[in-house]
Design a protein that fits this description.
The structure holds two protein chains of two kinds.
Chain A (H helix, E strand, L loop, with lengths): L11 E10 L4 E10 L2 E6 L8 E4 L4 E4 L1 E6 L12 H10 L2 E6 L10 H14 L4 E3 L15 H6 L5 E2 L8 H11 L6 E3 L4 H4 L4 E2 L2 H6 L3 E2 L1 H18 L2 E4 L5 H12 L3 E6 L1 H5 L21 H13 L4 E2 L8 H4 L16 H10 L6 H7 L2 H6 L15 E11 L18 E11 L2 E4 L1
Parallel strand pairs in A: 1-4, 1-5, 6-7, 7-8, 9-10, 10-13, 11-12, 13-14, 14-15
Antiparallel strand pairs in A: 1-2, 2-3, 5-16, 16-17, 17-18
Chain B lengths: L1 H7 L19 H17 L14 E6 L5 H12 L3 E6 L11 H9 L5 E6 L4 H8 L3 E7 L5 H14 L7 E5 L6 H13 L2 E5 L12 E3 L10 E4 L17 H8 L11 E3 L12 H4 L6 H21 L4 H10 L1
Parallel strand pairs in B: 1-2, 1-3, 3-4, 5-6, 5-8, 6-7, 8-9
Helix pairs in contact in B: 2-6, 2-10, 2-11, 3-10, 4-5, 6-7, 6-10
The chains are: A alpha/beta, B alpha/beta.
Chain lengths: 432, 326
């Protein structure tokens, strides 16, 4: 279930855009009219009906994005992000829906905490926001949360993101019980005895710089374990922030064998490798770590062939003082909501590594499908969830202040090509 | 007087800030210049009055977040031999104990306008961080498992002095390479001057990805001209880590004993030694041990480094000129 601040739906005509909806098979230069937040007409020329008219000549209009992996830091670290600031950042990034992770303080592991977040979202959310609840109480990996009640209270899925469910036995019970709620488990796959103390992918860069390695196998053994359990229990799992080629291969094989498994990749894992760590910039420190070029290629292949159905930002805001420290002392995580489309367009679509259509699908329909959300689409009668993109505009990250409360972006100072001009989310103009 | 004129002819504007953060940032020319300057200073130390006025009026802060005998004492003495003012700050007993961040400590010390901050810190990249937030020249005196560039330079100095030509030399580095900033700096320094390195030790302590030959067989040291013994870092050997089953077993399989060396084979160690663990006391005290020379070299090499970051010139001549003024 998604929540958003209550506002009247927009009356709008978007004129002359190249309208692209890969799932609908649509790529045409047409006008789109929105009446009260619903797409009312699409044609070569539509009547303005005295609506506000947006001249979108030269722009692309597409289904707005869905981010299945965001940290809103609320409750507990409202200095880093709030529902207001996080959803405003999402709107600026072209998102019409985001899902927030439950690793807050307190952890979202009870209907009461979830209810308070839902109430805040109804007051504050600039774009529709949904919440995942924890798999285990306090994310301690010991006892299951009351998933039934949490699902009724609106939890979209369950996750202990930030930490793995270490016990295989408990993971099995979680898969069994979650099946009765028809919600997927979103899994942070990390074998802690292999990753312990690791800050950087175990490889040439870590060896040369002296960092304790966080090897690929720390992820891939857990991915393999959880996929085996999911297959055995016929459970539904979604593997969060895939980083290693071996994990991708395990996911591909399981899907071929009929396991109900999906996966996501982040912009930073699709664009950067561990080479970036040579800068010692705490803004390239994330969990899982940036890996080798072969891993990046494997992720990119999997995004292309659909093994990875979703691109997720893992938007992880951190207070400035927490990142203004030497690399090892810095927390894991980077922001991403406001730069995701632009960086992927710049580094993957522009050089011809990924088609615009595939990018749009993996940022919107893909994640919506995984989490059972209504697919954003450009179609008559559909709620207006649209993003207007200027693929030619260049901009420098950080020149304009972030809408997020945190600025720990690995792209600070980078020039990107492709910008969000307008976001219509849940029928409302959320950004322009 | 001529020096003053030369200074006046420098182009206006600040020269690029010179730091010594990593061997990776050095060229072969830099290394040769530093070793040459160190040689000049070594000559000056043979005089009756050992103090040079070279860095008079300069402030050098030694900021140590880890315990150290050799490095901290030699940096302090190096600064004093060059007539600089020194300020020694240790993490224990300072505001670091009260939870002050590295940024705030650096800004605080930076407010005294130090010319150089020498820093040792348990975290990788701390010197780079201090270089970003202060105006001082920064010298890395060891950051986590990353780098210890002055150690590598003093080892090159020692090798040249005691063994001779560096190009083509073969050095076996033995022990806990994984946790060793010394090994990382040495490998880069060796590559610059043409020394071949072989890493020898237990499998879990030899990172596969380093650019060097590796062997788990202690017999591999026999091929080397020099055996460089790394410290077995007890603090890294916490229970349950299981890099090796026990120190006893480590010593039995990789400890450097007279029986495992060729006669006359030279041995180095960055200190502090665990006698009887990675190195047999008979080796440590033998004439083939270069360990005391390493310590002596540490002083003159660190004098050269401080001089070099502050003047950034082709230094030998100026250092001598300054000595003449004295």
């Amino acid at each position: 279930m998604l929540w958003q601040k209550d506002r009247p739906g927009a009356d709008l005509v978007i004129r002359g855009a190249r309208v692209v909806d890969p799932v609908e098979g649509l790529d045409a230069r047409i006008d789109v009219r929105i009446d009260g937040g619903t797409i009312a007409d699409m044609a070569a020329k539509v009547d303005a009906n005295e609506h506000r008219v947006v001249d979108a000549d030269g722009l692309v209009l597409a289904p707005a994005f869905v981010d299945p992996h965001v940290h809103l830091r609320t409750p507990g670290r409202e200095d880093e992000e709030t529902v207001t600031s996080g959803t405003a950042a999402a709107a600026a990034g072209g998102y019409c829906a985001i899902l927030a992770m439950p690793n807050t303080d307190p952890v979202v592991d009870s209907a009461a905490t979830l209810g308070a977040l839902a109430a805040a979202a109804r007051q504050e959310a600039e774009v529709p926001v949904g919440f995942l609840a924890a798999i285990t109480r306090g994310q301690r990996g010991e006892e299951l949360t009351e998933m039934g009640e949490l699902a009724e209270a609106g939890a979209v899925a369950f996750s202990d993101d930030g930490v793995p469910v270490s016990s295989a036995g408990l993971m099995r019970r979680a898969l069994q019980y979650a099946s009765s709620t028809e919600r997927p488990l979103a899994l942070h796959c990390e074998e802690p005895t292999l990753s312990r103390g690791g800050h950087v992918h175990e490889g040439r860069v870590a060896a040369e710089l002296g960092f304790t390695g966080y090897p690929s196998v720390a992820e891939s053994v857990m991915v393999a374990r959880d996929l085996a359990l999911a297959g055995y229990e016929s459970g539904r799992v979604h593997v969060l922030h895939l980083s290693a080629a071996e994990s991708v291969e395990a996911l591909r094989r399981s899907r071929e064998a009929g396991v109900a498994a999906s996966g996501e990749a982040t912009p930073h894992h699709l664009v950067l490798t561990d080479d970036a760590v040579r800068s010692l910039d705490p803004n390239v420190k994330m969990n899982p770590p940036l890996r080798a070029e072969a891993d990046r290629q494997a992720l990119l292949d999997a995004v292309r062939d659909g093994t990875i159905e979703a691109i997720a930002t893992d938007h992880a805001p951190h207070a400035a003082h927490e990142k203004e420290v030497p690399f090892e002392a810095a927390p894991f995580g980077v922001t991403g909501l406001e730069t995701a489309f632009a960086v992927l367009h710049t580094h993957l679509v522009q050089p011809g590594l990924l088609t615009l259509e595939t990018l749009l699908e993996r940022m919107s329909a893909g994640p919506a499908r995984i989490f059972g959300l209504e697919r954003p689409r450009v179609a008559k009668g559909a709620p207006a969830n649209l993003v207007l993109l200027d693929l030619e505009r260049e901009w420098t990250v950080g020149e304009q202040p972030f809408r997020s409360r945190s600025g720990n972006s690995w792209l600070l100072g980078s020039t990107l090509k492709g910008a969000v001009q307008m976001t219509v989310a849940g029928g409302v103009v959320a950004f322009e | 007087m001529i020096r003053l004129v030369k200074d006046d002819l420098r182009p206006p504007g600040d020269p690029p800030k010179r730091h010594l953060l990593s061997v990776a940032g050095l060229t072969r020319d830099d290394v040769e210049r530093l070793l040459g300057t160190a040689r000049t200073f070594e000559t000056s130390l043979e005089r009756h009055v050992k103090k040079l006025p070279t860095l008079k009026g300069h402030l050098i802060v030694n900021l140590f977040y880890e315990s150290s005998t050799r490095t901290s004492s030699s940096f302090e003495l190096a600064a004093k031999r060059l007539s600089a003012d020194t300020l020694n700050v240790k993490s224990t007993g300072s505001s670091v104990d009260k939870g002050e961040s590295l940024k705030d400590t650096a800004l605080t010390l930076g407010a005294y306008d130090p010319d150089v901050i020498v820093i040792r810190h348990p975290q990788i990249g701390a010197p780079q961080f201090v270089a970003r937030v202060t105006e001082a020249h920064v010298v890395n005196a060891g950051d986590g498992k990353h780098q210890h560039p002055t150690q590598a330079l003093l080892d090159l100095y020692t090798l040249r002095k005691e063994v001779g030509e560096l190009d083509g030399l073969h050095v076996a580095i033995v022990g806990d390479v994984l946790h060793s900033r010394v090994a990382r700096s040495l490998l880069q320094a060796f590559a610059l001057v043409g020394i071949r390195a072989t890493l020898v030790g237990p499998p879990a302590l030899l990172p596969r990805e380093l650019p060097a030959e590796t062997s788990t067989d202690i017999g591999a040291i026999l091929d080397a001209d020099v055996v460089y013994v790394l410290r077995m870092q007890n603090e890294r050997m916490e229970a349950g880590a299981n890099f090796v089953p026990s120190l006893r077993e480590y010593t039995a399989r990789w400890g450097i004993t007279p029986e495992r060396l060729r006669p006359g084979q030279k041995v180095m160690h960055p200190g502090p030694m665990n006698r009887g663990v990675e190195i047999d006391p008979r080796i440590a005290d033998s004439p083939d041990s270069l360990i005391t020379t390493q310590v002596r070299s540490g002083l003159v090499v660190r004098m050269a480094v401080l001089y070099d970051v502050l003047t950034g010139g082709p230094v030998g001549v100026q250092a001598l000129a300054a000595a003449e003024v004295a």
